[in-house]
Specification:
The protein has about 160 residues and is α+β, with helices and mostly antiparallel strands. It folds into two domains: about 20-85 and about 140-155, SH3 type barrels (Roll); about 85-135. About 35% of the residues lie in helices and about 35% in strands. The chain is built from three helices and nine strands. The strands form two sheets. A six-stranded antiparallel beta sheet has the order 6-5-4-3-7-8, with no helix packed on it. Strands 2-1-9 form a three-stranded antiparallel beta sheet, with no helix packed on it. Helix 2 (about 85-110) runs antiparallel to helix 3. The two termini are about 30 Å apart. The mean pLDDT is about 85.
Length: about 160
Amino acid sequence: MKRMTIILFCLLCVNFIAAQEQAIKITNEAFPKEFIIKEGRRIKIQTTDGQKISGRFSIENSNTILIKNQRITLADIESIKRHPLLLSIFTSGFFIYGGAITAGFGIIIGAFIQSSGFLLTIPAAGMIYTGIKSPNFNRKFKKDRSWTFELTTSSP
């Protein structure tokens, strides 16, 4: 019985050690806030040279991440933001279909009821454009607002 307990304890310890995931830890110097984005999540970053890259990230070494086969060091990141796929599909689909329906009603109202109904195509065009640009309502962490980025390991 004692041997079984020791074996079980060792297996649990090995499981906890092997189950650690790498992540990006975002901390604020002014306020004691901390956010963690685990490896494999979709993010959208902007580098110091103005390049915008979005996709799933993986961690290569102590200060480099990989997004779409592009290596980016943490010092080159100007801002970072979560970019979940489901949310971006939902919001862009909502705006595109809502804009198409609004434009359709505007054309029908303008043709059959009153000519001022054609004015509904103006907000419809704005909704369709917003849907194509795929808005992201998540929080953006910028380096110039005293956010710092570092790589860490976290347990699930």
